[in-house]
């Protein structure tokens, strides 16, 4: 199923095959959007990348492979879309970008186990991750998740060391 990158099977599990080259091409597109915002005067600490499902997987890859620390990345019902070879490309600055990861335990499209594998992976590469599980949530976003995202972003905007005028 092509979109940002190919998905070879559904439901997605922790062991599903990955389209690393497709992910890396999609990351270039996201990085171009981030670079445009930075060129327009937005400080990277005030840039947040958020995505659902495949967009969540792309969010994770995009913030981890961006050369600078960003304000944060929010992954909703996503997964780790690459293998260990890509982790060597993650800069020390990018490892400072905090991640919010939310996943519904009743998700039958991107299985909960795929989302649950994210935080230990992030911990292994020294990336801060807040993980929230939603017991009755399937493959969708809930109002509760969005309200938590709003407060999570607001707390980081207020904590940004450098503010744009």
UniProtKB/TrEMBL annotation:
PANTHER family: CARBOXYLESTERASE OS04G0669600-RELATED, LYSOPHOSPHOLIPASE-RELATED
Domain of life: Eukaryota
InterPro entries: AB_hydrolase_fold, LYPA1-2/EST-like, PLipase/COase/thioEstase
Stretch forming the signal peptide: none
Organism: Panicum virgatum (Blackwell switchgrass)
Name assigned to this protein: Phospholipase/carboxylesterase/thioesterase domain-containing protein
Record domain Phospholipase/carboxylesterase/thioesterase: where: 1-154
Gene Ontology cellular-component annotations: cytoplasm
Family: Belongs to the AB hydrolase superfamily. AB hydrolase 2 family.
Matching Gene3D superfamilies: alpha/beta hydrolase
GO MF annotations in UniProt: carboxylic ester hydrolase activity; palmitoyl-(protein) hydrolase activity
């Amino acid at each position: 199923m092509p979109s940002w990158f190919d998905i070879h099977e559904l439901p997605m599990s922790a062991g599903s095959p990955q389209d690393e080259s497709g992910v890396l091409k999609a990351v270039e597109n996201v990085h171009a959007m981030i670079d445009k915002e930075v060129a327009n005067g937005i400080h990277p600490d005030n840039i947040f990348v958020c995505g659902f499902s495949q967009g969540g997987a792309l969010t994770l890859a995009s913030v981890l492979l961006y050369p600078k620390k960003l304000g944060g990345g929010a992954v909703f019902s996503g997964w780790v879309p690459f293998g260990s070879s890509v982790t060597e490309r993650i800069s020390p600055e990018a490892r400072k970008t905090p991640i919010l990861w939310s996943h519904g335990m009743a998700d039958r499209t991107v299985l909960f186990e795929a989302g649950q594998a994210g935080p230990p992976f992030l911990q292994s590469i020294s990336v801060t991750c807040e993980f929230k599980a939603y017991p009755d949530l399937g493959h969708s976003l809930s109002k509760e998740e969005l309200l938590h995202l709003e407060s999570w972003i607001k707390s980081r905007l207020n904590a940004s060391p450098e503010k744009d005028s």
